[in-house]
Amino acid sequence: MATLSFIPVYPEENCFSIASQALKLTTEEDITPHLDAILKISAVNKIDLSGNTLGIDASKALAKLIASNESIYNNLKEVNFADLYTSRLVDEVVESLNVLLPAFLKCPKLTIVNLSDNAFGLRTIDSLESYISNATALEHLILSNNGMGPFAGERIGKALFHLAKNKLKLTPPAPLLSTFICGRNRLENGSSLYLALGLKAHAAGLKTVKLYQNGIRPRGIMNLIHYGFKYNTHLEVLDLQDNTLTKTASLMLAENLPIWKDVLVELNLNDCLLKKDGADAIMDVFTKLTFPHLKALKLEFNEIVQSTIEEKLLKALESKKLPELKVLQINGNVLEEDSEALDTLQGMFDDLELDDLEELDSDEEESDEEDDENETFQSVETDLLEKDLSQLEIDSLIADLAKASI
């Protein structure tokens, strides 16, 4: 994964890393030398075990170390546990998370958690949902390529909703989630409504949302925009790459783009099937409003046509509506290779790639896309859904208090 802008640089002496060593840490004995090394650090800010494989007994030993040592749990700010379960059985992964995630909850400064590239699926959703709901220190959650599926995605959305409520209960309230990265998880339309409500709950806190490669179709994208994104008024990075917008969702996105005109830094719509009308609607916004901080605009493989580039994109650039744009991606669209417009753009952007321009799709492909075009927005009483989620939280609290009284 590329370096992320929110990842801080800690003093080397405060970090422990065995990243990408392909170590098989199965038993307590296997992991003990590394635990001993962690204990030698006076104030542990970061633990990076990514690219190794962790078993149950090793997980228990690590969790005990984190939860029982003040120099760790009082200082830990970031854990990178990406790609940590290669060759492990699902039962091993479930039990490992069941001991590690409660240990994370004991760390009051743990703001960055990366659990990407682990085959979690549905079996781990109970522990993940519980952790996310209660991790009030959490500000940056990276949860990509975990085999979630739409039902698990819905549960993650509910967990984000409860997380926001739990953060706001604190005195003073804890900062809301700033980063949510959940790509390559087959979230599809089925997760979109509750995911939107979860993102909405973090309101102006969210600055980065990346939901790339999730098979979300126009209706799901519209749910995300209408019930979620439009409340995230400080959004700097929006990445929807390799989902499907077509005209319907593109029009809704264009309608809401002005919300972020003063904050947006990157918009990634590569492989989103905007098509001509969708691209025109989005480009019209850029011709009318100035986006002073937009540095990256990614629009590859969207069936964008020459007239959109000539009449709208160039107009926005030449009228200084995108004064800070440094990265433009328009490869793979239906453009005229030898044209004055593309020559002009290549003069503006040194790294502009135009080596894979497309012809119009075949009739067969266009027929397949008609199903997406027919997906229209359907209004939902989300106030009732949010009320139900809040009531579930109250019911859970009452149940916990009842257990405590016994």
From TrEMBL:
<dbReference type="InterPro" id="IPR027038">
    <property type="entry name" value="RanGap"/>
</dbReference>
<keyword id="KW-0343">GTPase activation</keyword>
<feature type="region of interest" description="Disordered">
    <location>
        <begin position="358"/>
        <end position="379"/>
    </location>
</feature>
<dbReference type="InterPro" id="IPR032675">
    <property type="entry name" value="LRR_dom_sf"/>
</dbReference>
<dbReference type="GO" id="GO:0005096">
    <property type="term" value="F:GTPase activator activity"/>
</dbReference>
<keyword id="KW-0433">Leucine-rich repeat</keyword>
<dbReference type="GO" id="GO:0006913">
    <property type="term" value="P:nucleocytoplasmic transport"/>
</dbReference>
<protein>
    <submittedName>
        <fullName>Similar to Saccharomyces cerevisiae YMR235C RNA1 GTPase activating protein (GAP) for Gsp1p, involved in nuclear transport</fullName>
    </submittedName>
</protein>
<dbReference type="Pfam" id="PF13516">
    <property type="entry name" value="LRR_6"/>
</dbReference>
<dbReference type="InterPro" id="IPR001611">
    <property type="entry name" value="Leu-rich_rpt"/>
</dbReference>
<feature type="compositionally biased region" description="Acidic residues">
    <location>
        <begin position="358"/>
        <end position="375"/>
    </location>
</feature>
<keyword id="KW-0677">Repeat</keyword>
<dbReference type="GO" id="GO:0031267">
    <property type="term" value="F:small GTPase binding"/>
</dbReference>
<dbReference type="GO" id="GO:0005634">
    <property type="term" value="C:nucleus"/>
</dbReference>
<dbReference type="GO" id="GO:0005829">
    <property type="term" value="C:cytosol"/>
</dbReference>
<dbReference type="GO" id="GO:0048471">
    <property type="term" value="C:perinuclear region of cytoplasm"/>
</dbReference>
